[in-house]
Amino acid sequence: MSTMGFFTENVFLRRTLLMLLFLAGLLIRLPHLNETPRNYWTMKQYRSALLARALFFNASTDVPAWRKEAANAARMSYSEPPLLEMLAAKGYGLLGSEQFWCFRILTIGAWLLGGWFLWLLGRRLLTDVAALVSVVVYLFLSFGVIVSRSFQCDALMLCALIGSILGIVHYFERPGVVRCLLCTLVSALAIFIKPGSNQFTIFLVYGFLALKQQGVGGALKDGKNWLFAFVALLPAVAYTLWNIMANGYLMFCLNSNFVPQWFFSIYFWRGWLAQLLSILGLLLLVLGMLGLFVAKGLPRHVLWAWIGGYVLQCFLTSLTTPSHDYWHLQFVPLIALGLGALSLPIGSFMARRWGPVMCRTVFGVLLLSYAIFNMGKALRWYAATGPSDYVRISREIGSVVNHSTKTICFDYD
Is 127 in a helix, a strand, or coil? Predict the structure, then answer.
C-alpha cells in the first residue's frame, strides 16, 4: 500500500513501533499476576492448578505426606497433555513455593509469540501495513487479554497453530526437506498441545496449498506430504490412545462432544453466533469477515482453508461450540488477518480521495483508539475481579476440616 510507504521502507520506525506494541501488549497483561485463577472459566483453571500442585508436591522432599495425599486426591482427569502444568510445576520447584504468576508468564509469553508469528504471516500473505493492523487487533482484543492470562493450554495451542500455518506457507514458497521438517514438527506440536482443536485447519491449509502447487497426482506422489501427515498426527494419536487406555476420560469427552442433532436446533446456531459476538463484537466480526472475502490469490487460499478447518471443528465439537468461548480461539487471528486484508482497499480508496497524509492519520488514530479502548476495558476488568480472599478462605476451611480428602466445598463457581 503506497500510502503507507513510510512504514514499509523505514526499518527503524517499523521495529520501534512493533517493539512498543508488544511492550504495551505485555504491560496490559501484568496486573494481578499472582492472583488466584477465579476470573475466567474457574473450573478449567482450577483443574490445571490442582494438577500443577500435585506434580510440584510429588517432586519435593520437603512437603509433608498429608499434603501430598490431599493434592493427589484432588487431581482431576484431563484430556490435554499436561505440558503447561508440568512447566508451572518446574517453576514452583525453582521458586520453592506455588506462585500463580508462573502459569501466567507462560501463557502470556505464548500469546505474544503468537503475535510475532502473526506479524510474519501477515507480511507473507499481505503487506507490512496489513500485518500491523492484524497484530494490533490480536494483541489488544480484550478477550485475548483474558485468555492469555488463563491457566489453560489454549494460548500455547494458538501460538503453535499460527506458527504451523506460517511454517506451511514458508515451505510452499520454496519446498525443501528442511522447511518440510520444520513445518511438520511445529504442526505436530500444535495438534499435540490440544488434540481435536486445530488439526482440521492445519491439514486443510497444507492440503489446499499442496493441491494448488502440485495438482492431485503430484500431491499424492510427493513423499514429503505423506511424511507431514504421519508425523503431524503421531504424537497426538499416541497420547490419545494412551489416555483412553489409562483412564477412559478422553473417550467420554470424545463421545459426548459430538451432538449432531443440535445442527437442527436454534440453540446451536444462536449460541455459535453469540460466542463470536462476545469474543469479537459485531463491528470486528463483520469487518473481519468482509476482509476474508476481499483477499485474493494465495491469501484467499490460506484464509479460506483456515475457515474450513474452523467450521469443521465447530461441527465435530457441537457440544462446546454454542457454549465455550475458548473453543473459538483460532478465529481471533483469522479475523485479525481479515481486518488486515480489508485495510488495503480501504487505505487505497482513502489515499485517492483525501491524500496519503490524511490516510496515515486516520489509520493511526483508529488503531490507537482501538488499543486504548481495549486496554481500558482490561483495566476495568482487573478492578472488578481481584484481588480476592479466596486463598485465606480456603486455608480456613482446610484447617476446620483438618485437610480432609473426603470433604467437598461448594461455592458460587
Answer: coil
pTM of the model: 0.91
Instruction: Give alpha helix (H) positions in 248-296.
Output: 249-257, 266-280, 282-294
The alpha carbon dihedral of 267, 272, 276, 281 has a sign of negative
pLDDT at 386 over 50: yes
DSSP string, 157-185: HHHHHHHHHHHHHHHHHS--HHHHHHHHH
Distances (CA, A) of 95 to 47, 62, 92, 146, 284: 21, 13, 5, 25, 42
Counting every residue written for the chain, the total comes to 413
Contacts of 126 by beta carbon, 8 Å cutoff, 6+ apart: 134, 295, 299, 337, 340, 341, 344
Q: Give the tens place of pLDDT for each residue, 59-99.
A: 988 888 888 888 888 887 777 889 999 999 999 999 988 89
Query: Do the beta carbons of residue 236 and residue 199 sit within 8 Å?
Result: yes
Contact 158, 139 (CB under 8 A): no
How far apart (Å, rounded) are the C-alpha atoms in residues 332 and 141? 9
Tens-digit pLDDT profile for residues 214-264: 899 998 998 899 999 999 999 998 988 887 777 665 555 655 678 889 899
Q: Taking Cα atoms as reference points, which of 46, 61, 129, 15 lies closest to residue 360?
A: 129
Q: Which of 24, 160, 33 is nearest to 103 (CA)?
A: 33
What is the rounded distance in angstroms from the CA atom of residue 267 to the CA atom of residue 320?
12
Taking alpha carbons only, the member of 346, 281, 338, 349 closest to residue 307 is: 338
Please report where in the chains the cell 472459566 appears, as a residue: 41
CB 268 within 8 A of CB 262: yes
